[in-house]
Amino acid sequence: MRKNLYFIIIVFSLSSCYTYQVKKQADTAGDNKQESKKNGAPVNTASAPMQSPAAGSPNVKAQQATPVPVNIQEKLAPNKNVKIDVEGRSYKIIVDRWESDSLVAHPVHHPKKILKFHKNQINSEKIAEKRFSQPIADIITVSVYAGIGALIWYLLH
Question: Does position 4 have pLDDT exceeding 50, yes or no?
């Protein structure tokens, strides 16, 4: 019984409610359609010139397929705790500053070690910010309450 209790205590002490999550970009074309539906204003298609379906669909697909340009310097602001992917390798860093086109940062648990990356080396699609995860916190809370309840029940019987 003691080994199980120690194991449970170790597992809960090592778990964290913070995870690295990639921010999703909003689709501007989809947002405009949703806003017009919410406002109840009908879309005026009569004033637009009629196009054949074959000619109009590649243009629409091309507009939706092109990603919105991401400014890496805005995503990686100073003192942010992020996980980046640089040339196939992942780093958990805290951003210190930008020196022209180079990012100066240090690893999370090694503040004396300095890392420098050029902005072209960083994969902008895989920049993940450290955020609080409510579902994980709820799971840990319920588990701790269940453990306390089981301990009380065990002591009473």
Answer: yes
pLDDT at position 100 is 86
Listed residue (90, 86, 70) closest to 23, CA to CA? 70
Query: How does pLDDT run across 95-145, given as a tens digit for each residue?
Result: 999 998 888 999 998 989 999 998 888 888 888 888 888 888 888 888 889
Half-sphere exposure of 54 (CA within 13 A, CB side): 0
pLDDT in tens, 50-81: 444 444 445 544 455 445 455 788 888 888 89
Q: What is the 3-state secondary structure (H, E, C) of 112-153?
A: CCCEEEECCCECHHHCEEEEECHHHHHHHHHHHHHHHHHHHH
- The answer to whether 93 and 75 are in contact (CB under 8 A) is no
The token pair at 157 is 């019987």
The Cα 35–Cα 46 span in angstroms is 20
Strands (E), 34-101: 81-86, 89-99
Q: Tokens in use for 146?
A: 């269940």
